[in-house]
Every structure is written in structure tokens, then in C-alpha cells.
Design brief:
binds nicotinamide-adenine-dinucleotide; Rossmann fold; 13 strands; alpha/beta; 9 helices; binds uridine-5'-diphosphate
């Protein structure tokens, strides 16, 4: 085991996905460094890891450089929910772009392997369905989602340029909507919003007419995918889509959550935010073929666990 033990940096490690990733890497016996500025991440997400000898936390803002000795970097630092990434859009794009530059510079200097948490948002409001990796996207460069979308697109560019120019060993994963325990209850994302509203019998806020679609992946499946990609062959750098291709409309999701929680909530329709993508569903053939990755957790199964998590938070 000892020779397989690695020093792994997880930026954004106190966030929703980052904390689950830290759990897995600590359980595998690696020395894990969790770096976070606690903008959207919390100490609660990683409290259970704090006493472990192979887990360490660094409070740091990735907009500033940092020097560390590591073997692998998972670069997840960036607010992911629209209300958080739009709160300070200049900071969001700085986090994606400066963060990528700093982490790629570090990877180059210490010869570390580095994985970028990219996003389905690089496809914007897609005109191709389902989205496959060779599609270049349909992104508004000046809209309210642009700080996130263009920041992530620029980060991908930096990853591929460092790879071509400096032979940095990269991986790029385009993550589609992922949900599960430790989503921030007030971060405005649809799954957490609907569950919180349903559990308190408040109106379920549907933006637009609810016909827009998303494809929701349970967090455990996604973490499997990130680790498989990091450990996969160096020749396969991506970009690779990771998400669950089970597509559902937002109205369908609301009805499902009302039914599963036994809630008295009714749906209420509100204005659709600008540039909200109309349809989103990943083509995951590449991840299946290259990594044998196939998310197995159905939406209803994942929602049971997620509802349970939010219930405990509310009623404890
Ligand atoms: P999250 O907001 O829970 O986590 C992001 C973490 O990054 C937080 O802990 C936050 O405090 C930290 N952070 C933000 N700015 C930082 C900075 N400047 N310096 C240091 N730390 C900073 O979101 P998440 O859902 O866990 O997303 C993690 C990553 O995965 C993000 O990069 C996101 O873009 C990507 N992603 C997530 C999804 C999803 O559905 N969850 C989909 C696509 C992509
Ligand atoms: N949404 C909604 N009600 C909410 C929160 C979100 O109808 O309370 C919609 C939102 O407009 C979008 C979809 O749900 O069409 C997913 O939103 P989320 O913010 O979770 O993710 P993203 O739009 O980034 O995929």
C-alpha cells in the first residue's frame, strides 16, 4: 500500500463535491491536502476528517499562487451554483482563470498530474442534443452566466496549452448537474431548493414553464468517475463528459420530489433567468469506452438519500 500512497491536493475540498472526494481519497490512504477559501464550502463538510492523520486543511484563496509538494491535483475550487457565481462575477472568472494558471504552474514545477473540474456549461445553451465532447458549444460571452461559462472554457484552454507546451499531465472532466448530501441548502440549485421547499411545505419555485431539462448524477457515481479519470491512461486527457444521461424536465423533478416527500407544496412559476439552457443531457459514450464508467444510481434512488440528508438537517 505504502508505495501507492500519494500526496493529493483537492482545491475546493470543503465544498459539496470536494468534500466527498476528500472522503474517498482519505479512505484510500492518501495524504490529502484540502485547500479552500470557504466561500461556498464549510468546515462542517470536512469536520469528520479533521482528526485524521492523513488529512490537512489549508485556508487559501486560489486567486493567489501557492507552493506545495504534491503528486496529484484535483482542481475543483469555483462556486458552482448560479446565485453564488453571479454574486461576484469578476471574482468567479478570476478563480477559474487565475486558479487554473496557479495550479497548472504548480503541476509543471513539481511534475504533478492535474485534473480540472470543468462543466457542461462549456456547451452553453446547446444546439446539439445530447451533448458530445466534440461539440464546441453555444455560449453567450457577455451574459449573466458568462463569468462561469467563459471562465471554465478559458481554464480548459489553459489546461490544453500547458499540456501541449509544457507536457503537463492533465485530465479534463466536464461535469453535468450533480446532486447529493452536503449540497448547500441555500445555494439556489434546483435539487436543494426543491427539497428544502417541499420539506417545509412552501411553494416549489419553477423558473419558466418547467419544460427545460437537466440530467442529474448522484455524487457517489461522479466521484467514482473523477478518480477513474485521474488514474486512467495518460494518453486519455479528455475532455470527457461525466453525468447521468437520465434526462428529466424541471417540472417532472418538482412532481417527483413532492411525491417522494409527501409534501403539501404546490408549484409556483417564476421568471426564467437569462441564458438558462433549455435542454441538457450528456453523451457519455467516451467515458464508458475509455474508462468503463457508467453511473448506476437512478434519480429516485439518489433523491431518497438526498432528501434524508436534508430532513436530518431540518429536524435535528
Ligand atoms: P461548491 O460551491 O460546493 O464547491 C466549490 C468550493 O470551492 C467551495 O468549497 C468554495 O469555498 C471553494 N472556492 C471557491 N472559490 C475559491 C477560491 N477563490 N479559492 C479557494 N477556494 C474557493 O460547488 P461544487 O458543486 O462542489 O463544485 C465543485 C466544482 O465542480 C466546481 O469547480 C464546479 O464548477 C464543478 N462542477 C460542479 C457541478 C455540480 O453539479 N455540482 C457541475 C459542473 C461542474
Ligand atoms: N430552477 C428552478 N427553480 C429553482 C432553481 C432552479 O426552476 O428554484 C431551474 C433553473 O432555472 C434551471 C434548472 O432548474 O433551468 C437547473 O438549475 P440549477 O441552478 O440547479 O443548475 P444549472 O442551471 O446551472 O444547470
Amino acid at each position: 500500500m505504502y508505495h501507492q500512497r500519494k500526496r493529493v491536493l483537492v482545491t475546493g475540498g470543503a465544498g459539496f463535491l470536494g468534500s466527498h472526494l476528500c472522503d474517498r481519497l482519505v479512505a484510500e490512504g492518501h495524504d490529502v491536502l484540502c485547500l479552500d477559501n470557504f466561500f461556498t464550502g464549510t468546515r462542517d463538510n470536512i469536520a469528520h476528517l479533521l482528526g485524521k492523520p492523513n488529512f490537512e486543511v489549508i485556508r487559501h484563496d486560489l486567486v493567489q499562487p501557492i507552493f506545495l509538494e504534491v503528486d496529484e491535483i484535483y482542481n475543483l475550487a469555483c462556486p458552482a451554483s448560479p446565485i453564488h457565481y453571479q454574486y461576484n462575477p469578476v471574482k468567479t472568472i478570476k478563480t477559474s482563470v487565475m486558479g487554473a494558471i496557479h495550479m497548472l504552474g504548480l503541476a509543471k514545477r513539481v511534475n504533478a498530474k492535474i485534473l480540472q473540474a470543468s462543466t457542461s456549461e462549456v456547451y452553453g445553451d446547446p444546439t446539439v442534443h445530447p451533448q458530445e465532447e466534440k461539440y464546441w458549444g453555444h455560449v453567450n460571452p457577455i451574459g449573466q452566466r458568462s463569468c462561469y461559462d467563459e471562465g471554465k472554457r478559458c481554464a480548459e484552454t489553459l489546461f490544453f496549452d500547458y499540456h501541449r507546451q509544457n507536457r503537463v499531465n492533465i485530465r479534463v472532466v466536464r461535469i453535468f448537474n450533480t446532486y447529493g448530501p452536503r449540497m448547500h441548502p441555500n445555494d439556489g440549485r434546483v435539487v436543494s431548493n426543491f427539497i428544502m421547499q417541499a420539506l417545509s411545505n412552501k411553494g416549489i419555485t419553477i423558473y419558466g414553464d418547467g419544460s427545460q431539462t437537466r440530467s442529474f448524477c448522484y455524487v457517489d457515481d461522479l466521484i467514482d468517475g473523477l478518480i477513474l479519470m485521474m488514474n486512467g491512461p495518460d494518453a486519455f486527457v479528455g475532455p470527457v463528459n461525466m453525468g447521468n444521461p437520465q434526462e428529466t424536465s424541471i417540472l417532472g423533478l418538482a412532481e417527483m420530489i413532492i411525491r417522494m416527500t409527501g409534501s403539501r407544496s404546490k408549484v409556483v412559476f417564476e421568471e426564467l433567468p437569462g441564458d438558462d439552457p433549455a435542454r441538457r443531457c450528456p453523451d457519455i459514450s467516451l467515458a464508458k469506452e475509455k474508462l468503463g464508467w457508467n453511473p448506476g444510481i437512478l434519480l429516485e434512488q439518489g433523491l431518497v438519500k438526498t432528501i434524508d440528508y436534508f430532513k436530518r438537517g431540518i429536524f435535528e
